[in-house]
Design brief:
Length: about 350
């Protein structure tokens, strides 16, 4: 009797486990080397592709097929990065883990409504951001200053940093004033000449070694202006055009502790270049990983691609098709793509 009851119980348990297994499979869109990939992670990558189709070179005539193929490859890279980091014994520091958690919270707070509609959980988002952090950790492992594989020297990093970024202190004055009716009008000829002469004098004094903060204090005192005791340092790249399209090229040609005068948008500026590679500014350390990525990320990507290509992956087409349909309902594709894929 006991054996019969036990057999019935085991049979029922097998049926229950079968149903549980089927139910859990509903949460996975594909597998890579046996590792199940949640619908949310697949959705995250497919969503990025659909939001930027031109960046991924999707062919209009095979748009949906290409989108799935590209998403599959991105997921394989996701697994490749995690696997490589694990095999090399790479772990994230406390600070890096904190940054991941903060970035996850920030993105979730901003876009949780979109993520939830798409079926992306906060845990899915956390995993993708952690993956990004592991990729940067791999970059440092292979090419960082302390790498035992192929280190990039601090000297080379600083050289690349100074080519990409410039630091300046700025003194500015308007070349306009208000008339008796409150309208903005150009300075009269005498005021315009005096203002330009003042800034040219500031430039010459700066080039001759006068401390820029001393010049700033003197300028404010002469003009009866209220200002801070010292000037803030601003950092710019070539893409910054708020002071004119030729601003970066002009300033980057300056030696450190030299100045130039530029007029732009009814304002005259004195730009004084400073060396931002030193520890007192901390800019180099802030942007060092970005510079390393500029120099070596393409080489790391090749390693990741090679590892990803070696992985066996299986997509669950019934799940991925539903995800594609959901995403296109949330954010309809441009007409050229929807016409083709319908």
């Amino acid at each position: 009797m006991k054996k019969k009851i036990l057999a019935v119980f085991l049979c029922a348990l097998c049926i229950l486990l079968t149903f549980c297994g089927c139910g859990s499979n509903k949460n996975y869109a594909m597998s890579v080397e046996g590792t199940k990939i949640t619908n949310g992670i697949y959705t995250f990558y497919l969503g990025n592709i659909l939001a930027n189709p031109d960046s991924f070179g999707l062919a209009p005539e095979t748009f949906e097929e290409d989108a799935h193929s590209t998403a599959k490859q991105l997921v394989k890279k996701y697994i490749a990065i995690n696997t490589m980091a694990s095999e090399l014994g790479i772990s994230l520091s406390y600070g890096e883990k904190t940054d991941v958690a903060t970035e996850t919270d920030n993105r979730w707070n901003l876009f949780s409504s979109h993520y939830e509609k798409a079926g992306i959980t906060k845990q899915d988002l956390y995993k993708t951001i952690t993956n990004e952090a592991y990729k940067m950790a791999l970059l440092d492992y292979y090419y960082g200053e302390n790498s035992k594989i192929e280190p990039v020297s601090t000297k080379k990093l600083k050289k690349a940093f100074t080519e990409k970024y410039i630091g300046v202190k700025i003194i500015a004055a308007p070349l306009t004033t208000a008339d008796t009716l409150g309208n903005t009008v150009p300075l009269d000829d005498i005021e315009m000449k005096n203002t330009r002469s003042t800034f040219e004098s500031l430039r010459k004094r700066a080039d001759n070694g006068t401390d820029i903060n001393t010049l700033y204090t003197s300028y404010n005192s002469d003009k009866d202006l209220i200002g801070t005791e010292s000037l803030e340092t601003y950092v710019f790249t070539k893409s910054d055009t708020q002071y004119g399209s030729d601003f970066f090229s002009k300033v980057s040609k300056l030696d450190y502790e030299k100045a130039t005068v530029i007029e732009f948008d009814n304002t005259i500026y004195l730009f004084y270049r400073v060396d931002i590679t030193g520890e007192e500014y901390d800019y180099f350390f802030t942007y060092k990983n970005d510079i390393l990525a500029d120099l070596k990320l393409s080489q790391l990507n090749k390693k990741i691609d090679e590892r990803a290509d070696s992985l066996t992956a299986e997509s669950y087409s019934d799940k991925t098709s539903k995800i594609y349909k959901l995403l296109t309902e949330i954010h309809p594709l441009p007409s050229s793509e929807t016409d083709i894929t319908e």
